[in-house]
Amino acid sequence: MKRIYPKTVLLAAAALMAFSAPVQAAKMDNSIESSARESYVFKTYLQEDDIKIKSRDGVVTISGEVLNESHKMLAQETVAELPNVKGVDNQLKIKSEPAKNSDAWLTAKVKSTLLFHRSVSAKTEVEVKDGVVTLKGAAASPAQRELTTEYVKDIDGVKDVKNEMTVAGVKDEQRSLGDKIDDSSLTAQVKMTLLYHRSTSAINTKVTTRDGVVTLHGSARNTAEIDLATKLANDVTGVNSVVNRMIVE
After folding, report:
1. What are residue 241's DSSP bridge partners?
2. Is residue 156 a contact partner of residue 100, using CB atoms and an 8 Å limit?
3. What is the pLDDT of residues 87-113, one digit of tens each?
4. Is the Cβ–Cβ distance between 122 and 140 less than 8 Å?
5. Alpha-carbon dihedral angle through residues 80, 85, 91, 94, given to the nearest 10 degrees
6. Averaged over 37-65, what is the pLDDT?
7. Could you read off the pLDDT of 128-171 as tens digits, one per residue?
8. Domains, the chain
9. With CB atoms counted within 10 Å of each terminal CB, which end of the chain scores lower, N or C?
């Protein structure tokens, strides 16, 4: 038997639904804004930047000023990976971006790339002249020193590397917070890492992260590119493991 509801009940239910929808949307937007501000990327790499975050029905507008282009990209990639985000309107302005491919531009790029890797020293000093990168500071081991050279050589724009780092045998303690990094920050860092490295910048890769496990999808020209993508992603601070589902085309 079909149940007949009084008209007043139906009107009340409709009114309740009309009221609750905006409330739920507002809660979702507030959650997105809060998650962005509390993300590892925003609290670690973008804390000195003036970034305003406003979400409306899942579409997030980020505005203000950031130090350079890499910060602008990193902010967008992090916000885009947050739950319930439908799109990002990136209105961030750059304070004083040096000319592309200049020594100052390359210095910032090298420093940003090294920040994401757990197997190199976070305190590495970087100097660039005519595209030649000189590395100074202390490495925890000969292997760390060699890996730093390998990573920097593979950054797009670097012509050569002079590694003047000393082996001090001291632990680089900045990497101890890796297991606390949120998934959206990990995805953003892996994307930026693959983009910065010359050998992986052109490959078609989709990155997702869940509970610290990074999954790579997409295509590569050969198995060497796939293996390198796995290696670079796995060395990003906070990544627990990498599942590589890329294929060779």
Report:
1. 213
2. no
3. 999 999 998 778 888 999 899 899 988
4. no
5. -30
6. 95
7. 999 999 999 999 999 999 999 999 999 989 999 999 999 986 66
8. 9-94 (3.30.1340.30), 103-167 (3.30.1340), 181-248 (3.30.1340.30)
9. N
Burial class (CB in 10 A: 0-12, 13-18, 19+), 81: buried
**Placement of tokens 């890796």 in the chain:** 178
What does the block give as tokens for 203?
A: 């490959």
Q: Cα–Cα distance between 171 and 180 in angstroms, integer?
A: 19
User: For residue 172, what are its two tokens?
Assistant: 């680089």
Q: Position 70: which residue type?
A: S
Q: Tokens 């724009």 label which residue?
A: 157
Give the largest Cα separation in the chain, rounded: 85
Q: Say what the pLDDT of residue 19 is.
A: 55
Residue 63 CB coordination number (10 Å): 14
